[in-house]
């Protein structure tokens, strides 16, 4: 049994080595602002599927995680309103921000390197009106809703909504609001170890950036795993 285990481990580690080498063999079949289709050549199914999962929920993106309700006289409960805000996809800049767990501030409230403040102050309307994501103003010029047409709540005359929403980086493995992609699908071709990866972005990141970030994230995890195995 030990011999069989060693054989399987050796085969797995050899596959990891080949995975790094073959990642250069990627061809873009289709690409637009929302979707990218790439062909993965010379990559075993298990590693191609690992990349698919990474592109779906393994890349950090921004989402609202804490909401401070200052005033809410609408018919919506505070908890329902906070949940709705958390599901609004936010454009993400991975070059300037870090995940809270990796931030030097080590603070529960976060800092300018790991969180972004967004606000809504509707004022009391004279007529019934719809509050949309266009009114969710951000302190950062990049981290903001992917669309200004997302409905948040309808206010009746005299009702008011004022709040602060704090967004941070997270991953879809923790909650679906941090999914980088709405769709991440892997299909096979008629050739061995050749697969088609289709990614539809949630809008937080460009589709090509999702693929590149997924490759880098997967490569880092493989390196970490190799070090763990080597230390056994």
Mean pLDDT: 89
The percent range for helix content is: 25-40%
Going across the biggest sheet, name each strand in turn. Answer: 1-2-10-9
Gross geometry: elongated
What class do helices, strands and sheet pairing give? alpha+beta
Order of helices and strands: HEEHEHEEEEEEEH
Calculate the terminal CA-CA distance, rounded to whole Å.
Answer: 18 Å
CATH architecture heading of the largest domain: Beta Complex
Biggest sheet overview: 4 strands, antiparallel
- Tally of helical segments: 4
What is the CATH homologous superfamily assignment of the largest domain?
DNA-directed RNA polymerase, insert domain
What is the CATH C level class of the largest domain, in words?
Answer: Mainly Beta
Strand tally: 10
Measured on Cα atoms, how large is the radius of gyration? 22 Å
What fold name goes in the CATH topology slot of the largest domain?
Answer: RNA Polymerase Alpha Subunit, Chain A, domain 2
Uncertain runs: 1-10
Produce the secondary structure layout.
Elements lengths: L1 H21 L3 E6 L3 E7 L3 H13 L3 E12 L5 H9 L28 E7 L7 E4 L4 E2 L12 E5 L5 E10 L10 E8 L5 E8 L5 H24 L2
Antiparallel strand pairs: 1-2, 2-10, 3-8, 4-6, 4-8, 5-7, 9-10
Helix pairs in contact: 2-4
Brief characterization of the structure:
With 232 residues, the chain is α+β, with helices and mostly antiparallel strands.
């Amino acid at each position: 049994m030990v011999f069989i285990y060693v054989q399987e481990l050796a085969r797995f580690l050899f596959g990891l080595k080949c995975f790094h080498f073959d990642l250069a063999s990627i061809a873009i079949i289709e690409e637009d602002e929302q979707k990218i289709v790439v062909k993965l050549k010379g990559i075993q199914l298990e590693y191609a599927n690992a990349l698919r999962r990474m592109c779906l929920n393994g890349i950090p993106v921004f989402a609202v995680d804490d909401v401070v309700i200052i005033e809410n006289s609408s018919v919506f409960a505070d908890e329902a309103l906070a949940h709705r805000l958390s599901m609004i996809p936010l454009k993400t800049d991975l070059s300037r921000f870090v995940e809270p767990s990796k931030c030097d501030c080590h603070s529960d409230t976060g800092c300018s390197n790991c969180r972004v403040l967004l606000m809504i102050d509707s004022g009391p309307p004279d007529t019934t009106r719809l509050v949309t994501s266009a009114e969710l103003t951000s302190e950062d010029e990049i981290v903001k809703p992917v669309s200004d047409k997302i409905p948040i709540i309808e206010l009746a005359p005299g009702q008011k909504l004022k709040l602060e929403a704090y967004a941070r980086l997270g991953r879809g493995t923790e909650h679906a609001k941090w999914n980088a992609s709405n769709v991440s699908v892997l299909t096979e071709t008629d050739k061995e170890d050749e697969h088609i990866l289709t990614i539809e972005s949630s809008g937080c990141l460009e589709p090509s950036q999702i693929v590149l970030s997924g490759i880098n994230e997967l490569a880092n995890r493989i390196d970490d795993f190799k070090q763990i195995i080597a230390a056994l």
